[in-house]
Specification:
Chain lengths: 155, 137
């Protein structure tokens, strides 16, 4: 059911505890240090193209989204990146995630970028399905990785 | 990814019916729309009924109706019903499988299979229909 009483606003320092809790519910891991650093970089400090947005429904935080514009990384022209999106489990499927993504996309577009990008674990079907439902498809880049053994590093 | 005919037919049928869950269509209607074999499609439809994705409607104007959840069922749910599962023990046709080159090729194939599966698992019927050309809906 669509939740029509959602408002989107910029995050405030006092939101960090709820963000940590929502993230822990989804990932099963509390990361207070990480989120404190994110709040410093995206909320307290003022950087061009960085956004940390909060969705509120019924006066309560219902979700959040974090992203920023990155320029010429991996050879890519300026592009909006979404690092995290999260909606409280009890009010999912109400359009809150869509409202958050729409809001950050509007801010990216206002800065002149034409593409939004994200990276999701193949096992994270919840978020993969969400981004797919918003019209996002595989992009022109591939993520590659390998294990690095500690005994083969520089001498 | 090359799909078996049965898989393609199942995807056509389920998506066609899911586009309008209140609508009933016969096997002949769907076969004609996609220019596919009605005989082959009939077998596929029976399997989809057994899986609970569609239901048979009897009587005049009967046919099939979608009975699943468009927001939950993914393309992979349908594909894995009809596609032979890869992996397992090597058979007679797998000569050379236990060589370094064959194993390296297998690893590339597995990488592609993983990407394919993750993609298909992420696309619900609702998402696919949302971005299908308007004339379908």
């Amino acid at each position: 059911m669509k939740n029509s009483n959602v408002t989107i606003r910029d995050a405030k320092a006092g939101d960090v505890a709820t963000v940590i809790r929502l993230d822990e519910i989804h990932t099963g891991l509390a990361k207070p240090d990480y989120w404190q650093e994110m709040f410093t970089a995206y909320v307290t400090e003022d950087h061009f193209g960085r956004y940390f947005l909060i969705a509120e429904a019924g006066g309560q935080m219902a979700g959040f989204i974090v992203g920023e514009i990155r320029t010429w990384e991996f050879g890519s022209p300026p592009c909006g990146w979404v690092f995290a999106v999260n909606v409280s489990p009890e009010i999912r499927e109400g359009g809150i995630g869509s409202a958050l993504l729409d809001a950050i996309c509007q801010r990216f577009a206002g800065c002149g970028v034409e593409t939004v990008r994200t990276m999701v674990s193949r096992e994270d079907t919840l978020n993969l399905s969400f981004f797919r439902s918003q019209g996002m498809t595989a992009g022109p880049y591939m993520e590659l990785e390998k294990a690095v053994a500690s005994d083969t590093g520089p001498q | 990814m090359r799909l078996q005919k049965s898989t393609e037919f199942a995807l056509y049928a389920v998506l066609e019916l899911a586009a309008d869950p209140g609508r009933q269509m016969s096997t002949a209607d769907i076969a004609a729309r996609y220019a596919i074999s009605a005989h082959h499609l009939a077998k596929v439809m029976r399997q989809l009924v057994r899986a609970g994705l569609i239901q048979s409607v009897r009587g005049v104007g009967g046919g099939y109706r979608f009975s699943g959840n468009v927001k939950r069922i993914t393309l992979w749910d349908i594909i894995e019903m009809f596609e032979p599962q890869s992996g397992g023990a090597p058979g007679e046709d797998d000569a050379g499988y236990d060589t370094p080159i064959a194993r390296a090729l297998d690893s590339v194939r597995a990488e592609i299979d993983d990407l394919t599966r993750a993609t298909m698992q992420s696309i619900t019927l609702k998402s696919l229909l949302k971005f299908a050309p308007a004339e379908l809906l």
